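Worked example 4.2. Below are the chains of a multi-component assembly; read each line carefully before continuing.
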Amino acid sequence: QQKVQQSPESLIVPEGGMASLNCTSSDRNVDYFWWYRQHSGKSPKMLMSIFSNGEKEEGRFTVHLNKASLHTSLHIRDSQPSDSALYLCAASTTEGADRLTFGKGTQLIIQP
Amino acid sequence: EAAVTQSPRNKVAVTGGKVTLSCNQTNNHNNMYWYRQDTGHGLRLIHYSYGAGSTEKGDIPDGYKASRPSQENFSLILELATPSQTSVYFCASGETGFSDYTFGSGTRLLVI
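Applying the procedure described above to all two chains together yields the following structure tokens:
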């Protein structure tokens, strides 16, 4: 059973619009979340991490975390065609801090 | 520049043959990982290592072995390759604890 679930599987957003991606863990021991971005044919690269309840903003990207519900979301404002990619959510527990479990990803397409 | 280098980039193997995928990192990270990525499954952890001489089983270790002869090198070995092992394999390195990963460029393996 996949311990990290992402939704939606795919998302089409017009250029300049807001993209919202979701991720939930079914493992109550999860404490930490990461978001990775993977362009087609390339390797995943870490985008943002969040360890505490609340919100974290870096440029056009904002991440929210609700630890009680084990839910994190990634929001991309003023979306650009270069944001088109597979977005992977990853989680780890305190005990298993060295192991990341990844979700299946959300395929984001930004339409010019 | 610190990096994770995988070889080969592409590999065609015959069923029942032995395949060795190699990974070298210059990040001086203690931890190294092997993942496979398949459509519909995301990234799944095969084996990982905490340092030279250590290997640990990940979530899908069956049919795979790993070897960590040094801090820099981590190999994934398929003793008897099967078509179900056709996939894209990613190596990654990371610091001990809550750390993001640096991924290699991937190896595309086709078993016929």
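Take a moment to check your reading of the output against the notes. The radius of gyration of chain A is 13 Å. Chain A has a mean pLDDT of 93.
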